[in-house]
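Lab meeting, item 3. Inverse folding demo.
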């Protein structure tokens, strides 16, 4: 069954580390975007059947007024196995959560990033540990226990001690799911651009080096495992049965449809992406043009490994895969970057730390 992703690229403020096509926009653009978004969804209803999962991402979709969400979801069935909304700590209220539940939302992903106030302040985030704790309690009180918390390894000023404090605070809340992302350094974020240019704004001079970030990640893997939250994908960890059903569709190469700016889709054979910015997305709608920016027909065998090796369960290669990639398999098995169990190949802890280089081999073969 298909999954549905809805992009809401509007925020109250732009975080310094964010490299997504989201941020502070005008109210007028937001209203025009809503019109374009609902139109795009309506146009695709015949191909949706009964969607199994929903993910509303951003941006800050938790700040959307409930009637707006109701309008967006009006043409979609609400019998989701899993329906997630991303939320910024401090934007939750009992009324909003009750409205989400009435729309079928049963999972919330909180963008915590850190429990350390000084680290959060440098990113532009306004919450603190108390707000996070109160939000988790509020969600549970209002009937949503399927909660995920995000952390970022490598924020400016982060130390081994402060990272451990964040990990301890996360596991103390006993949530079923966590995501741990290593800070990405690229010029699509203000912080990344500042680091590349050798500047000092946004705490760029105080970002941990790659080795320390890798250490933080490995510390998180071990810590979460001790608390029953196992890694099932490179950046995602869950208690048994709490894995994200929607995100698993991406890694299992199952169909999903994305709506809104910069949203991606896959029908099992073809991948396509909408235009990146909200402004261009609206302009395409207002001039009766498709929002699609490009489409590709990827090699399913390449993707089997490029995507599937992200998962802890790994990939089961067949005879043709061994003919095509056997040399790479043997090399990574012999160097300890991969391991084999019951015929399945998966990355080891060492392999995960150089996963991007390993993935590229399967695209080039």
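The presenter then showed the designed sequence:
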């Amino acid at each position: 069954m298909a999954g549905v992703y809805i992009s809401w690229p509007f925020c109250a403020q732009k975080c310094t580390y964010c490299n997504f096509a989201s941020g502070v926009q005008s109210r007028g653009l937001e209203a025009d975007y809503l019109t374009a978004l609902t139109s795009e969804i309506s146009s695709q209803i015949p191909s949706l059947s009964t969607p199994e999962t929903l993910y509303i991402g951003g941006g800050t979709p938790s700040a959307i007024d409930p009637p707006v969400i109701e309008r967006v979801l009006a043409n979609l069935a609400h019998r989701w196995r899993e329906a997630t909304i991303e939320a910024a700590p401090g934007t939750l209220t009992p009324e909003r959560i009750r409205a989400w539940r009435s729309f079928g939302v049963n999972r919330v992903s909180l963008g915590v990033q850190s429990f350390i106030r000084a680290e959060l302040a440098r990113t532009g985030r306004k919450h603190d540990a108390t707000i996070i704790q109160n939000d988790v309690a509020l969600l549970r009180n209002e009937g949503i226990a399927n909660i995920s918390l995000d952390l970022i390894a490598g924020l400016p000023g982060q130390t081994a001690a402060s990272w451990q404090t964040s990990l301890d605070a996360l596991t103390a809340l006993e949530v079923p799911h966590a995501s741990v992302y290593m800070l990405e350094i690229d010029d699509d974020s203000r912080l990344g651009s500042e680091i590349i240019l050798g500047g000092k704004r946004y705490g760029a001079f105080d970002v941990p080096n790659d080795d320390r970030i890798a250490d933080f990640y490995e510390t998180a893997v071990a810590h979460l495992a001790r608390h029953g939250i196992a890694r099932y994908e490179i950046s995602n960890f869950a208690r048994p049965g709490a894995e994200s059903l929607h995100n698993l569709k991406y890694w299992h190469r199952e169909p999903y449809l994305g709506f809104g700016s910069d949203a991606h889709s896959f029908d099992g054979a073809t991948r396509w992406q909408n235009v990146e910015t909200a402004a261009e997305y609206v302009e395409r709608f207002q001039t009766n043009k498709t929002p699609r920016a490009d489409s590709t027909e990827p090699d399913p065998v390449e993707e089997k490994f490029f995507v599937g090796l992200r998962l802890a369960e790994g990939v089961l290669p067949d005879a043709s895969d061994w003919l095509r990639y056997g040399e790479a398999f043997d090399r990574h098995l012999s160097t300890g970057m991969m391991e084999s169990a019951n015929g399945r190949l998966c990355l080891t802890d060492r392999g995960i730390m150089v996963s991007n280089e390993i993935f590229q081999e399967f695209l080039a073969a």
